[in-house]
Specification:
Blueprint lengths: L3 E7 L3 H12 L3 E8 L6 H15 L6 E3 L13 H4 L21 H10 L6 E5 L4 H9 L7 E7 L14 H5 L1 H8 L5 E4 L1 H4 L3 E2 L1 H8 L4 H21 L4 E2 L3 H8 L4 E6 L1 E3 L10 E3 L12 E7 L1 H13 L5
Parallel strand pairs: 1-2, 1-4, 2-3, 4-5, 5-6, 6-12
Antiparallel strand pairs: 7-8, 9-12, 10-11
Bound molecules: alpha-D-ribofuranose (RIB) and calcium ion.
Length: 315
């Protein structure tokens, strides 16, 4: 089977952790590296979280490297209200043995991509885009090495940290601007679809019944995530944002997308960090540069999550 190589860039983060679980589970995918970025928590905490998740799931041979701890321009923002003091409150882990790769996360991304064939690797960012933008600026030749960037971020409707902007983009709008103007094929998995995959308690119970190490992690993560999502947004089930990225690579039919122009607002105050998607092709703001997710097969998504968890039964 021809495995699709994926390189994750993440800020674990409860939903990032589930995306790591998916990327390692499916035989169709080959997880080749993980760079970590500040976002949900500080870079120190998100790196420890990424290492803990990998160690817990037995992902010991995939390099994990700490990347940027601050955005290009704006002051750092973190999100303990949703992800807790550690950035991954809920599960407990054994003492950490897995070591971070000594390289900077941006360097790991560049080295991994430059060692690949052209258009071979899918880069899957699920946090602020600082590492990806820095890599593009440091080594522009990686652009031709990337098959597609499948990112969780943005929305063509409203945001979640301001009425206009989604967290990953809002954390580093200038980095997002670099990525969206890079010319790399992009799939934007925004809040428009991730808010349709709400992890209701019955979903948690469904995954708990699998009763293996991945299901225990899923349950511990999502019970905490649901608690904070209810406190902050009043939702009964938390939107399971990040795993929609790898799920859409596992099943290319999962998402309905619209190829259109997307620009990142780095100028205004009110809408700073907004992804302006011309999905009606009405504004003619520029050439299409992004496949924007506009719908998702929710039932299929949860089946992908369930099968991903089941794959750990044999690991
Ligand atoms: O807005 C949701 C995104 O911000 C998710 O990636 C979540 O993990 C946080 O990074
Ligand atoms: Ca994330």
């Amino acid at each position: 089977m021809n495995k699709q190589k994926v390189f994750l860039d993440c800020d674990p983060g409860h939903d990032d952790a589930i995306n790591i679980m998916l990327a390692h589970a499916y035989p169709e995918l080959e997880l080749v590296g993980i760079s970590v970025v500040a976002g949900n928590q500080t870079i120190e905490k998100t790196t420890i979280n990424a290492l803990n998740v990998c160690q817990y799931l037995g992902i010991m041979d995939v390099p994990v490297a700490a990347g940027c701890g601050n955005a290009m321009v704006k002051p750092r923002e973190i999100c303990p209200e949703i992800h807790g003091k550690t950035g991954l409150d809920g599960p407990t882990f054994e003492p950490l043995v897995k070591k971070a790769d000594p390289r900077h996360g941006v360097q790991l991304m560049i080295d991994t991509l430059m060692a690949a064939e052209d258009h071979e690797i899918m880069v899957v960012p699920t946090g602020p885009l600082t590492n990806v933008a820095m890599a593009i600026r440091m080594e522009p030749r990686i652009i031709q090495k990337i098959k597609r960037i499948v990112l969780m971020g943005g929305s063509y409707q409203n945001g979640n940290v301001t009425p206009a902007a989604e967290f990953n983009i809002h954390c580093d709008p200038e980095a997002a601007y670099v990525v969206f103007t890079s010319g790399v094929p992009i799939t934007m998995v925004g809040l428009d679809v991730t808010r349709k995959v709400l992890c209701y308690p019955e979903i948690v119970d469904r995954m708990a019944k699998i009763d293996n190490k991945a299901s225990h992690l899923f349950v511990d993560l999502m019970r905490f995530f649901n608690k904070t999502q209810k406190e902050v947004f009043g939702w009964e089930g938390g939107p399971t944002h990040d795993p929609v990225t790898c799920a859409s690579i596992i099943d290319p039919e999962l998402l309905t997308t619209k190829f259109c122009h997307v620009s990142v607002d780095i100028k205004s105050e009110e809408s700073y960090g907004r992804t302006n998607a011309d999905i009606f092709e009405f504004f003619r703001r520029g050439e299409p540069n992004c496949d924007v997710a506009v719908d998702i097969n929710v039932e299929r998504f949860w089946d992908i999550i369930e099968q991903g968890i089941r794959y750990y039964g044999d690991k």
